[in-house]
Amino acid sequence: MPDPAPVTGFCEPAYGDRSLGDVVPAVAAALGHPLGVAPTGLELPGASSYVVFLIDGLGANLLRRHEEAAPYLYSLLAGSTIGTAGVPSTTSTSLTSLGTGLVPGGHGLVGFTTRVPGTDDLLNALLWDADVDPVEWQPHTTAFSRLQASGVRVSVVNKREFNGSGLTVAAHRGADYVGVDRVGERIAAVVAASADSPSLTYVYDGDLDWTGHRWGVASSHWEQQLAMIDHEAEQLRDALPSDRRLLVVADHGMVDVPVTDRIDVADDGDLSAGVALIGGEARFRHLYCVGGAVPDVVATWRATLGERAEVLTRGEAIGRGWFGPVDPSVLPRIGDVVVACRGSAAVLSTDGFPYETKLIGMHGSLTDDEMLIPLLVD
């Protein structure tokens, strides 16, 4: 098996320093209710109430490039910190890191789709599966639960349909859930929940990510949606009393993937050889191999993709710290081989994921545009 090429153009996750898993411990310390974990590199100003507003898909580089569309959020960059998503840079992994305070290898949501150990099934971590118990899949006490137990009111403000979902239970259990569906009621709910002291109120908006997937981050549609999000964030700040802190974060960024940079496994029989199941997503693939096939799969995928992707065995990826320390129960969820795309490349699997052909914006890999996230304090 040829050695992996040196990693170029990748941003390593800042676990224990400025990653999404460090946000709630930093907020807890700022509230005067530390969670008893080692201090992180993220230091926040003290306050009696914090509102954490997560904007799905707003990478730090995207915000830097769109100052005109997001003047309020852009104005916060100068006095704030840039953090990183975990690996893969995808919503289910990131939201779980935020809510649990754990690295992906600890909480176990290591991809958009991952193999259910002992089966030939994939768990879609956003849609979930009724046969998979989210508490068994992610058994650790969440940071939200621990903070709530310490005397801080913790609230999750999100769409009504997400209340009780598998991802919500895995990532955010232990918090009070407030169901909302419109921007106006969302802001009102945040103001009401954050009135308790001390408190942490988490609020989520997924519309920018949806727009990026559908239209691409270079589109006028995405820029208009960013302008709306910017107005929402500023309106939220104006509605909050001055003694409550607003922390705006993201779960990942996004890159546009042109048709010419798409490789479809269905079009190349060599890429399917030795692969029993394909998971992950187009920018970060988990390959689950038949017995003894890993060396051949690695060699074939490296030769075919070349500089368009980093192809590593599970052990190599873990050795590079991509998932942080990995719990033994999580090991079989990670592909025998993982494929992280560089530049604007993507590996489609239209047989298993036909909807991917309709996406323009994608994420999941370790480029700066996907990994770097704003940590904006106002």
From TrEMBL:
It comes from Nocardioides immobilis. This is Alkaline phosphatase family protein. One of its GO terms (molecular function) is hydrolase activity. Signal peptide: none annotated. Gene3D superfamilies: Alkaline Phosphatase, subunit A. PANTHER family: BIS(5'-ADENOSYL)-TRIPHOSPHATASE, ECTONUCLEOTIDE PYROPHOSPHATASE/PHOSPHODIESTERASE. InterPro entries: Alkaline_phosphatase_core_sf, Phosphodiest/P_Trfase. The lineage of its organism: Bacteria, Bacillati, Actinomycetota, Actinomycetes, Propionibacteriales. Pfam families: Phosphodiest.
